[in-house]
Amino acid sequence: MTAVSPAQIASAVAASEPVLVVRDLAKSFGGVRAVDGVSFSVLPGTMLALIGPNGAGKTTCFNMLNGQLRPDGGQVLLAGRPITGMKPRNVWRMGVGRTFQITATFTSMTVRENVQMALISHAGEIWSPFGRARDRHREAADALLAQVGMAAQAERACGVLAYGDLKRVELAVALANQPKLLLMDEPTAGMAPRERIELMALTADIAAAEGIAVLFTEHDMDVVFTHSDSVIVLDRGRLIAHGTAEEVRQDPNVRAVYLGTGATSGGH
Amino acid sequence: MIDLILNQTLNGLASASSLFLVASGLSIIFGVTRIVNFAHGSLYMLGAYLAWTLVGRFGPTDALGFWGGVLLAAVLTGLIGVVIEVLILRRIYQAPELFQLLATFGVVLMLQDVALGLWGAEDKIGPRAPGFKSFVILFGNRFPTYELFLIAVGPLVLLILWLLFQKTRWGTLVRAATQDREMVGALGVNQRLLFTSVFAFGSMLAGLGGALQLPREAVTLHMDLSMISEAFVVVVVGGLGSVTGAYLAAVLIGILHAFGILIFPKITLVLVFLVMAVVLVVKPYGLMGKAPVGHQRAHGPAEPLLLPADGLTKLAGLIGLIILALAPLVAPDHILLTLTELVIFALFAASLHFMMGPGGMASFGHAAYFGLGAYGAALAVKWLGAPMEPALLLAPFLAGIAGVVFGWFCVRLSGVYLAMLTLAFAQIAWATAFQSVDLTGGDNGILGVWPSAWAVSKPAYYYLTLAVCAASIVALRLTIFSPFGYGLRAARDNPLRAEAIGLDVVRIQWVAFAVAAFCAGIAGGLFAFFKGSVFPTYMAIPRSVDALLMVLLGGVQTVSGPIIGAFAYAGLSEQLMKLTMYWRFVLGLSIVLLVVLFPRGLVGAGLALRERWRKEPEPAATLVEARP
Question: Which end of chain B is more exposed for a tag (fewer CB within 10 A), N or C?
Fold first, then answer.
């Protein structure tokens, strides 16, 4: 029998308690209900995909969770504590890591320094005006980079990396504050199919091992059906389906919404 | 009382017209070309000078001669605009924002000497406009009819501009380009012609604004900078790119001036500042302005990798410091004086670089903090009777406090908006020093700011300066590579990502702003005791420009750049001043050539050369193109 890591025990114990609980989340723009009474939850160590056609309210929903938008109504709970309407930096402090649809890294820093930056912030050392930042949390940064397979490129500038590698760096940065929840907005956008599968498999492994709950939006149905533990479907601001990938695929409402697009891509 | 109010309102409206003409030209040019034309005040000045000459030639008493002269002056200014656009700006549309600004600074300097050469240093008094020489009695006061005419010009030009933009194809193109430049290019519009014509049109408006001032005030060589700073305030308050906003703001500022002079004659500019502050707090992008979309990284490459100095660079720095430390043993006193000044400027430039380079916040008004440091020291001597040591300690705090207050507003904006706001604050600091005669002696300055006995000799004061400046520069450098410095760069590189890893971007930039102001204050304090006196000119725009040039000359994205830039620039301008009376022209021309040839600054160009020499297997990060 293989040894069970403390993280796995912790995740097993906490498995019954969802990391993220969203209740009746709502947001209108000029009378248009972009998100209308959406509720769901994510369990630790699991991957929840948020899908829906263009304009369904995915991004609005996402931005209310990460603090970029303030909801008109509803509640967001992280491990039982409300984070509704908090600023992005405070949401992060509560234990939410995040990757962007268009990769966001610091181009004037090396790969390792990008991760060190997040670690410095996590340790609350940002106001320290002396002492070299490059020497801080070096081992921890290298460990995170090893976890995402970027250790060999630690010294390279973020400005010269291949796109898939940048995504990995972002993942390492997002993991730096030992998040309870990882929010990934279109994590595989702009990547080659092979890279997509590798990145999502990596994410799923890390999530399971560390007991991190992952919520991601995605357009690629292959990625959704292969890598999600469950799927929620938004259409015109409302939640129209919630279940496993297979359940959602069979759902007549979802088929209606995706007719001619998503429904066929699942039929391999 | 009511008649006084009406009277001042009319005065305010009259002065708003020229301001509006200049500001709307600036705004239109920015909208289409994304260039903030620092030389716009210079075009306004040229318009006034040309009108003076032409009206004099055509006969000032003849209506045709006067108005023909005024209009021809405006057209000629537009043609000068074409020359500037075709020869200089056209080559640098793809260059980083700051270098475009630098180039237009160069044009300011050149035009200053052109005006000096053609018209001399004396003020020129224009004739009164034929047909508008009389007064009308309004509310029991005599009111010049020319002022009434000017009041009508503002709304009239606004109407013409509106018609032009709504009803002509050219106007539609200008509006389209203001909204989405790439799209207009993709539609097959001749962009070169559009840009040139827009620049010519904006220049013509500035020239007309200047020409119309002829009967109202004397034509001087200082018109350019005083107008450009007011125009910046108008554009910031009105919203960059909005012509209607420019009109509203010009009227607001004009009326504020008119009433300010009546009610608080000494703090009119403080009043303007307060109004501007209120507007910017409520509407950060001005009355009619919109938040720039994707403005932050509009063009230019992504920020290059910043690495700490290698052994060789450190050794070079140490050798440089040793040479400077040994200089008093061999150098005569007059060389030591120059060196003292250079060392002070190196700190001044390094403090600006701190906020501009790692902070990504370009300041056009950094001299405010240098000057406040100088005044802090001088005021401590004059009013508290303090000796040099405590006065030097106190000096940076005055600058630092101003940095905290002004910075609070500035860090809420970014890019050119921030830069224009810093310039406006510097103008306010300058005007406060200039107007508060009781406290600061006004134009006469404060004299008798001498060092303590031990530091009176040239070598002693040189060593004091060198020690303080070198320590401050090293401290700034250490900070750049500290966690705070990394946080500052993170905030610059990608504010969204920075917030998403828990960094408070606005607060980090605010602190950096204050630190930069504080360090400029240290340099200013040293400068006060070096010169033995302080004057409002320490805070004037030319000194801010000096600092900006030093930093850009050295290269913004290198840490050693500002020091090398300070020595190169201060040395160059001093030599030039000795060589020719028209040193500004030569300096301006060198700046323009430099920007066109080395858009990354001296140290940046050197680094690029070194990278090419080494031929590294992997393209150096500094040469990499922007990612999508």
Answer: N
Q: Are residues A154 and A66 in the same domain?
A: no
Q: What is the CATH number of the domain that holds A257?
A: 3.40.50.300
CATH class, B311-623 region: mainly alpha
Instruction: Compare all CA atoms of chain A with the CA of B307 and give the residue at the minimum distance.
Output: A109
Interchain CB contact of B482 with A (< 8 Å): yes
The token pair that represents A241 in the structure block: 């389906």
Summarised one tens digit per residue, pLDDT across range A78-137 is 998 999 989 999 999 999 999 988 888 998 899 999 999 999 999 999 999 888 999 999
Q: How far, in Å, CA of A120 to CA of A140, rounded?
A: 11
| Tens of pLDDT, residues B41-51 | 999 999 999 99
- Give pTM, 2 decimals: 0.84
- Whole-number mean pLDDT of chain B? 85
Residue A218 DSSP SS3: coil
Distance from CA of A141 to the nearest CA of B (A): 14
Return the higher-pLDDT residue of B439 and B111. Answer: B111
Mapped onto helix, strand or coil, the DSSP state of residue B10 is helix
Alpha helices (runs of H) in B283-436, residue ranges in sequence order: 311-330, 333-356, 367-384, 388-410, 415-435
B243 near B282, Cβ under 8 Å? no
CA dist A229 → A222, A232, A248 (Å)? 13, 10, 11
Quote the CA–CA distance of A122 and B506 in Å, as a whole number: 18
> The tokens of B240 are what?
């960059």
Residue in B492, B501, B508 to test binding to A, most A beta-carbons within 10 Å: B501
| Residue A100 counted as domain residue | no
Residue A170 near residue A107, CB atoms below 8 Å: no
- Number of alpha helices (DSSP H) and beta strands (DSSP E) in chain A: 11, 10
The DSSP string of B60-98 is TTSHHHHHHHHHHHHHHHHHHHHHHHHHTGGGGTTS-HH
Q: What share of chain B is helix, strand, coil (3-state, %, to 5)?
A: 75, 0, 25
**Facing B484 at nearest CB: one of A87, A113, A128:** A128
Its domain, for residue A156, covers 105-178
CA nearest neighbour of B177 among B163, B167, B191, B166? B191
Q: CA B172, B177, B178, B182: dihedral to nearest 10 degrees?
A: 150
CA distance linking residue A45 with residue B319, whole number of Å: 58
Residue B419 amino acid letter: A
Closest CA to A158 of A207, A212, A215, A118: A118
Determine, yes or no, domain membership for A20. Answer: yes
Nearest CA in chain A to B511: A127
